[in-house]
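Morning F.,

Quick status update on the modeling queue. The single chain you submitted on Monday has been processed. Sequence for confirmation:
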Amino acid sequence: MFLSKEICFLEMHRTGSTHLTKILPNHFQNGEQKGFHNRAPKKIYESNISFVGSVRNPWDWYVSVWGKGCDAIGITYERLTKKKIYFNNLGLKTKPWMSPWIFFNQFSKPLEQWREVYSDHNNVENFRKWLKLFLLDRKYDDGTSYGISDISKICGQYTYKYLTLFLKNDRKLYDNSIKNLADLHKIDKQYNVLNHVIRSENLEEDYFELLSKFKKEITDTEKIEIKNLKKTNISSRDQNYLKFYDKSSLELVKNMEGLIIEKYNYEIPSI
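C-alpha cells below.
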C-alpha cells in the first residue's frame, strides 16, 4: 500500500502495481510505502481519501500469474509448491464445518503435480492444466480463503483478490450475502472504494490522467521518461498471452471473471 495525504494506492498482484509504486513517489512526494499487496487499515477505508488501484485483462492476468511461477517466483508459486498448512485460513471463524476438509486438502496437496505445471513457461498444456487446478480442482491448496469464500463457485481467483483489496467490508465475501453474480455486482457497487483505476494495458496514459485529476504538473520530457522506463517484474513467458489458450480455457476465464470483464469492458478474445 502506498499512502499519501491525497491517495491510497492498493497493489493488485500482476497488474503493473510494482511499476506504479516506483513512479508514484515522484509526484506524491508526501507518500509512504506501507507493506505490499496488503489491505489498508479500517480507518483508511472509512476515511475520505481517494483510492487508486490497477487492473489487467483477466486472460492476460492468469498467464502472468502462472508465468511468474514458472520462474519460481511469487507468493502463489510458493504456496502451491511447498508443503505447508495455512492454519489462519482454514475457515475456523467463518465456516468451521469446512475446516477439516480444507485441512485435508492442504495436507494432501499434490506438490509434484503443481511443480510439473510450473516446469516450462512455454508449455501451453501446462498452463491449461494449471488454470483448471487453480480455479476448480485444487482451489484450497494456495492457503488463501478463496476456496471458502461465497464467490468461489461463481468467480475466479482474480475477482477474489480484487475484492479482498478494494471492498471496504471484505467480510461480505464469507457471510452468505452472495448467491449469484447479481449479488456480487450489488456488493461491489455498495462497498468498492476505488476512485481511480489504472489499466495495465494503458498504464502510462491512465497514470497521467490520475496526475491531472490531482493537478500534478508533469512535463513532456517526464512523460517520455516514464513511457521509456523498463517495465518491472516481468515474467520470462511469451508475452502473447493468447498463445496459451484454447476454447475451453478461454471460456473458463470468461465464466469465472464476469465481474471484472463487465465492469471494465474487457472484450472476450478470439482465438
